[in-house]
Amino acid sequence: MLLGCMRMTCDTPYILDPDVRDCPKLVELERILGDLLADRPQRKIMIFSEWVRMLDLVRELAIEMGLDFAWHTRHTGAVPQERRRAEIARFRGDPGCRLFLSSESGGVGLNLQVADAVVNLDLPWNPAKLEQRIARAWRKHQSRPVSVVNLITEDSIEHRMLFLLDQKQGLADGVLDGLGDVGNIRMPSGRGAFLERMEAVMAGTKPRAPQDQAPQDPASRLCEGLRERHGDGFLALFAPGGADEAFMAVVDASPEAVEEESRRLGDGNVAVEVMDRRTWEMLCRLETAGVLRFSGGDRGELYRSQHLDDGGAAARQRRVQELTAEADRKLRMATLLAGGDFEAEARVPAAEAMTTALRALTVGTGADDPGETAQAGELADRLFEQGALPLHLKRSVEGALADGSALIAASDLLSHARG
């Protein structure tokens, strides 16, 4: 709460105390608006703030400057939905409406490419929110460059947030867009993440343990506690950055249990990221695909249960079972329709059952799931070339594709996939 109050005062104390209207950002905003409109008199500008009271001051400034504006906030419920829609339409269609004053409610879902300037009066913790604000103007069919101005109070919590936003944006660029070196980006969690964030914001230092305190082995302590709480469900412990950095624990448990364990370990002095089996297998697949890599290329394996695999055979087997179950459901649907003299209607689910069974066979060979758009004929040819599909089943698929009746082929393929 206090961190939030510190961020508010970077805009103006008026947000917390209506008797104090000091706002240096408002003075700067008046100059910026003058420059932007002098550069292009017909320019439309979007102005964002997390706090409606800050926008109240901007509204007063706009009136003083003789600028018409649209008002879009949702936090207080003061502007009903129909009125917000009308304000959006006015900003888009009225040449005289130059400003769009919005809280975070206008940061998503709106197409406002009539604007070609965005002013952020304050910064959110999450860089994605900042990108969403800008994306309201930088949309499809935007033909002009979009100017973006961020107002930052110097030597404040807001100033120090720039480092965190840069780190978070670097992580997002590395994971989603393949830019930069994800392996060199530290990803702390739990209490360690909070302390690191506090360090960056407050420019402080973490207290060190007394020199005379006996060193402890955090990895052994973690293993012991996780094994005690989860038994055989405790699958692995890794330290990709070294045992003195952060840990990753893998447990076979429900999402609720994983969240509870994360909270429990977050109260400790060591950063621990807790994940379930599926999440670990997904990370392994991303590593195999080259999307991400562990720090130094080493997972830092400290403990591994015999029940854990890297998303290979066990994960493929689960996917095969899911696909065969889906194929069975479609086949039963087709059989029911055909038995009720709805043979024409049975053809679609029968064909889908046949294709899904071929997908199950494909995954069973170690290949990736070809997806719902896969063609049955191509899958059958590929499986036959690999020796995973007998000749009589390949011919059965070809016959089904020729005459449009896939019931028998689907049934035979399903039996083969289960085997």
- Count helical runs: 15
End-to-end gap:
59 Å
SSE string, helix = H, strand = E?
A: HHEHEHEEHEHHHEEHEHEHHHHH
Please give the share of residues in helix. 40-55%
Structural class: alpha/beta
| Rg, Cα atoms, Å | 29 Å
- Spatially, the strands of the biggest sheet line up as 2-3-1-4-5
Strand percentage, roughly? 5-15%
Mean pLDDT reading: 79
pLDDT < 50 stretches: 204-215
Number of strands: 9
Largest sheet: number of strands, sense, barrel closure: 5 strands, parallel
Overall geometry? flat
Characterization of the model:
It is a single chain. The chain is an alpha/beta fold and 419 residues long. The protein is built from 15 helices and nine strands. The protein has helices at residues 2-11, 24-39, 52-65, 81-93, 127-135, 157-177, 190-202, 218-230, 255-266, 277-288, 313-339, 343-364, 376-385, 391-403, 407-418, and strands at 45-48, 68-72, 97-102, 117-120, 147-150, 234-238, 247-251, 272-276, 301-304. The strands form two sheets. The protein has a five-stranded parallel beta sheet with strand order 2-3-1-4-5, with helices on both faces. It has a four-stranded mixed beta sheet with strand order 8-7-6-9. Helix 4 (81-93) links the parallel strand 2 (68-72) and strand 3. The longest helix is centred in the C-terminal third of the chain and has 27 residues, at 313-339. The protein starts with a helix and ends with a helix.
